[in-house]
Amino acid sequence: MNQARHRGGDHGPTHLFRHVVAGPALPVLIVLGVILVDLVGGAGMTWLPLLAAGPALAATTNGPRGVLCVGLLAGALGGLLGIRDGVPARELTAVLSALGAVTLASGLASALRGRRERVLAAVRSVAEAAQHALLLPVPETVGPFQVAVRYSAAAAEARIGGDLYALVSTPYGVRLLVGDVRGKGLPAVGTAALVLGVFREAAHDEPDLLTVVDRIERSLARNLGHDDFVTAVVAGHPRDGELEVVNCGHAPPLLVGAGGAVTPVEPTHPAPPLGLRALTGETPTLQVLPFADGDQLLLYTDGVTEARDHGREFYPLVEGLARHVTDEPARTLDALHDELLSHVGGRLHDDAALLLLRKPAAVVPGVPQPVCGGALLEDRTG
Taking a C-beta distance cutoff of 8 angstroms, is the pair 196, 206 a contact? Predict the structure, then answer.
């Protein structure tokens, strides 16, 4: 009995009022505004047809039940005012019939919109779950390094992107990858999965970092289309005091010395993105950087450096890193991330990934710690 009464009450006047009030207020305000104008002007038929704007607008924000509630409210109030103003029965019936037709059509449009939104949400949820499964959490320490990662997904449909990163400890030292797949959506996520899978496998198997890059290149050449590619930076720590870097068409990493100086690591011989080597014949080079205690390396994607403010100015990453660099990578990236969002007004239009690697200074009592600059040590071609 109680359950039956509760179900019956769902369709009563109280529930109708609650459903109208709970939805977006603009359609209801439009209906009330038309009623108010009619009461003040007393023009009858001149204003009553405008009541159809209420359910029509409700279709853009409400579900079918919300549209129906707005339509019923408009019909009930319009009928009362029509009788009050002495509108002829035939004309009033025509107005209310048109209002009913608009309400039904708007309800159908609302149902179709809701269905498309649910399908899109399901697809995006699957894509984001796959992307999160690929971008495995990075621990705070890996081997001898402190590590921090910040990944910011863009707004709206663009938030499913192809930014990727990975960091693994191998028999040949710690190795890491940051890259950006051309395009968005599920194809980009699939390409990112391919790159990460090959990198994680090759990083454990190959002693030479250039061979790791070659294996990724060969895999992409077999699987990508002619217009697809991946920009990437692959780095490794083969021995104490050094970092190896291979840049394939990606933004240059930023090397931060122990004294806080920030130096972009520009490739000495620019190489094409992964997947395009066959078109150019150019091979990437292996750069070896001095990397002493206290030094840091920041890898990032173009969603960071191409983020613009309202004046169309790019985010100055080098200056921002110099301002916020600390001995704690997580705190440094938190400050950079907050400043980046503030620069763009709180809404990114492209994915942005940041990975910061720091070699902690060894604590040796009575022994001063050396300060290392950011100059390149040597360059080897692959």
Answer: no
